[in-house]
Design brief:
InterPro entries: AAA+_ATPase, DEAD-box_helicase_OB_fold, DEAD/DEAH_box_helicase_dom, DNA/RNA_helicase_DEAH_CS, HA2_WH, Helicase-assoc_dom, Helicase_ATP-bd, Helicase_C-like. It comes from Cardamine amara subsp. amara. By secondary structure, the chain is of the alpha/beta class. Among the domains are: 4-237, P-loop containing nucleotide triphosphate hydrolases (Rossmann fold); 244-419, 3-Layer(aba) Sandwich (Rossmann fold). Helices cover 39% and strands 18% of the residues. It contains 23 helices and 24 strands. Helix 13 crosses helix 14, helix 13 (425-433) crosses helix 15 (475-482) and helix 15 packs across helix 16 (487-498). Bound molecules: adenosine-5'-triphosphate (ATP). The site of adenosine-5'-triphosphate (ATP) has 21 residues, from helix 3 and helix 4. The site of adenosine-5'-triphosphate has 21 residues, from helix 3 and helix 4.
């Protein structure tokens, strides 16, 4: 792979400094600092060569160290080189929402423009772009949705797929789609090469020219991508902005949570100024470390307590995630407890220390059993490299890996592509909506197993999205593809609309999207259980969630709480604490409810409620989730009707003790046992009545 050594600098800073006493002086100095910072990035020295490579190659793979400036600078180089003329845009995709948002804000600041003007971001439920936007940061999933409306992606001159090493299912599908779009936008190859004079018409009759594609990461196996794109050129941007010292433990740690806590306090008490970023595996773990940090702080002398724990995980509402990006109050050190959503692309100002216990929660899926599992597994080398890359972005940093160096050598190089370990029904429905019919023959970079494709097609057929010939032809299928939800939840909303319980289903789906609506501290388990009883419905978890949500609504209503979001948040937090409800999860559920409600209303649905007729709502749950039904066996275990698996009711379910005869459930998870979660009691006869195409005879047992 040719590399680009650091050479001359291309950016320039203005020399005509204003009077230091003038009001514009401080603004000038901020601008000057930013300009100097940009000049100092390794990528700045190769701007001209990179642009030449983009001009010469329709597909370019760029590998460069973390922090070298790929994500923030390359789009600006392309803008300056004229790639956004005639209203065209450069699109930059990120696997994570948080990265799309924070990077766009930073680039807008660097360009000295208002966010949403030249530079903007667009993520599910939050679009800041305008007709003036030329550099558009977005999630890979969002670009896939855009392709539904504009199959040639005709508004883009260049698309940059950033952090491609993450190999999310959306990145993989997007790469395949972009390959197709690029071909469609090329004229038949003539003597002048492929990229000249080619003009097609976009969906709105606009002229469209060839599409440039750039694939980018710091930890990319460039060969895999190059081969996939028929020998595409790969270049390496050399140079790292600031050094990061990597430190390992001498021996393996038996308890990585405890080791992380010890390291947090060691840094806090012994190291120089600088904030700390700790990578943990999930919301529960993060919240328990947050509490432990608070507790241990109480044992420190008053003047040593200035450590502020903050959190970042995907179920946290965006504005709360953003709190981690604000500077710590004077004299305080921030310790940010994050999942791997903070692993790539983002720069959190102030971070000098990273603590990496070396684990990640990874989803896997067994299509034949329809069973998902979420296991804590060792992170890959690519992930650990990204993690250490979060230190050293503003100055030299340190990364504390909580395992011995010999363990690092044993890690997998990269993470197994998500497409090989997830339920594909969502992706396949989207591909179908994009007009891609032959899923098995589709040109994936890594083919998912035939078994999981067949299973997903079957599921979509049973949900009524596809015809018996696996074609997307009916209105229900199109409606389902328009909703940004798992097909089974989209179907549930469509059915609820017909059965007059859309309001109840919207709440249910919103609550099901959060990790856990209840707060269950180990030390107060009994008290928490007693409080949960107050919400508990004998008919199951879904109705219990409804009552939590509704009681929180009534509480706000009674108080006639008006005023700022902050005031509402405060009051809600107190209510949640008293009722052992997880306030962050509830807030997330409320936001999601609002967003999905907007979607269904745009689709022309009227949100009506079944009032107290919970029978109708349970019938609707049965009609929606009939693929996940389970029947009690003589020995008290359950048999999942679809797969025949022997399963157990999860102890967190309100039905754990009552053991009803027949239930529907939303999740089948393998942890210490095969557990079903989120259950509602149903009459087994409903299955044959409401899903006769699946349960043909009158005996589902
Ligand atoms: N929000 C921000 N606030 C302050 N500085 C920032 C911010 N975003 C980026 N930077 C600075 O710009 C540098 C380059 O960031 P950029 O995201 O372009 O690098 P990258 O090569 O894409 O890194 P990675 O591979 O880790 O995504 C960072 O190291 C940091 O110094």
């Amino acid at each position: 792979m040719p590399s680009m050594a650091q050479g001359g600098l291309n950016s320039s800073v203005q020399n005509n400094k204003p009077n230091p006493k003038s009001p514009t002086a401080s603004l000038f100095s901020i601008r000057q600092k930013i300009a100097q910072h940009r000049k100092s990035l390794p990528i700045a020295s190769v701007e001209k060569r990179l642009i030449e490579e983009v001009q010469k190659n329709d597909i370019l793979i760029i590998v460069g160290e973390t922090g070298s400036g790929k994500t923030t600078q390359l789009p600006q180089f392309l803008y300056n080189a004229g790639f956004c003329q005639e209203g065209k845009m450069v699109g930059i995709t990120q696997p994570r929402r948080i990265a799309a948002v924070t990077v766009a804000k930073r680039v807008a600041e660097e360009c000295d423009v208002e966010l949403g003007q030249r530079v903007g971001y667009s993520i599910r439920f939050d679009d800041t772009t305008s007709t003036s936007t030329r550099l558009k940061y977005m999630t890979d999933g969002l670009l896939l949705r855009e392709a539904l409306l504009d199959p040639h992606l005709s508004r883009y001159s260049v698309i940059i797929v950033d952090e491609a090493h993450e190999r999310t299912v959306h990145t993989d599908v997007l790469l395949a789609l972009l390959k197709k779009v690029q071909r469609a936008r090329l004229k038949p190859v003539g003597e002048n090469g492929p990229q000249q004079n080619s003009v097609l018409r976009g969906c709105q009759g606009r002229k469209i020219s060839p599409l440039k594609l750039i694939i980018m990461s710091a930890s990319l196996d460039a060969r895999v991508f190059s081969e996939y794109f028929g020998g595409a050129k790969a270049v390496h941007v050399e140079g790292r902005q600031h050094p990061v010292d990597i430190l390992y433990t001498a021996h393996p740690e038996s308890d990585y949570i405890d080791a992380a806590l010890v390291t947090i306090f060691q840094i806090h008490l012994e190291e120089k100024v600088g904030d700390i970023l700790v990578f943990l595996t999930g919301q529960d773990e993060i919240e328990s470390v947050e509490r432990l940090v608070q507790e241990r702080l109480q044992h420190l002398p008053e003047d040593k307590r200035k450590l502020l724990p903050l959190t970042i995980f995907s179920a946290l509402p965006s504005e709360q995630q953003m709190q981690a990006f604000a500077p710590a109050p004077t004299g305080f050190r921030k310790v940010i407890l994050a999942t791997n959503i903070a692993e790539t692309s983002i720069t959190i100002p102030g971070i000098r220390y990273v603590i990496d216990p070396g684990f990640v929660k990874a989803r896997s899926y067994n299509p034949s059993k329809g069973m998902e599992s979420l296991d804590v597994v060792p992170a890959s080398k690519a992930q650990t490299l990204q993690r250490s890359g979060r230190a050293g972005r503003e100055g030299p940093g340190k990364c504390f890996r909580l395992y011995p160096e010999r363990e690092f050598e044993k890690l997998e190089d990269s993470t197994k592509p998500e497409i090989k370990r997830c339920n594909l029904s969502n992706v396949i429905l989207q591909l179908k909506a994009l007009g891609i019919d032959d899923i098995i023959g589709f040109d994936f970079i890594d083919k998912p197993s035939r078994g999981s494709i067949v299973k997903a097609l079957e599921e979509l057929r049973l949900l009524g999205a596809l015809t018996d010939e696996c074609k997307l032809e009916n209105p229900v299928g199109y409606q389902m593809s328009r909703l940004p939800l798992d097909p089974v939840y989209s179907r549930a909303l469509i059915l609820a609309n017909q059965m007059n319980c859309l309001e109840e289903m919207l709440i249910t789906v919103a609550v099901l999207t959060v990790e856990s609506i209840f707060y269950d501290p180990r030390e107060k388990r009994e008290e928490a259980r007693a409080s949960r009883n107050h919400f508990a419905s004998v008919e199951g978890d879904h109705l219990t969630y409804l009552s939590v949500y509704r009681e929180s609504d009534e509480f706000l209503e009674k108080r006639k709480v008006a005023g700022s979001e902050n005031k509402i948040d405060k009051i809600m937090k107190k209510w949640c604490k008293d009722n052992f409800v997880n306030s962050r999860s509830l807030k997330h559920a409320r936001d999601t409810y609002r967003q999905i409600r907007e979607h269904v209303e745009q689709m022309g649905f009227t949100v009506s409620s079944c009032g107290n007729d919970m029978l109708e709502f349970r019938r609707c749950l049965a009609a929606s989730f009939f693929l996940k039904a389970a029947q009690r066996q003589l020995d008290g275990t359950y048999r999942a009707l679809e797969s025949g698996e022997i399963v157990h009711i999860h102890p967190t379910s309100v039905l754990f003790r009552s053991k009803p005869e027949c239930v529907i459930f939303n999740e089948l998870m393998q942890t210490s046992k095969k557990y079903i979660k989120n259950l509602t009691i149903i009459d087994p006869l409903w299955l044959t009545e409401l899903a006769p195409h699946h349960y043909k005879s009158a005996e589902p047992v």
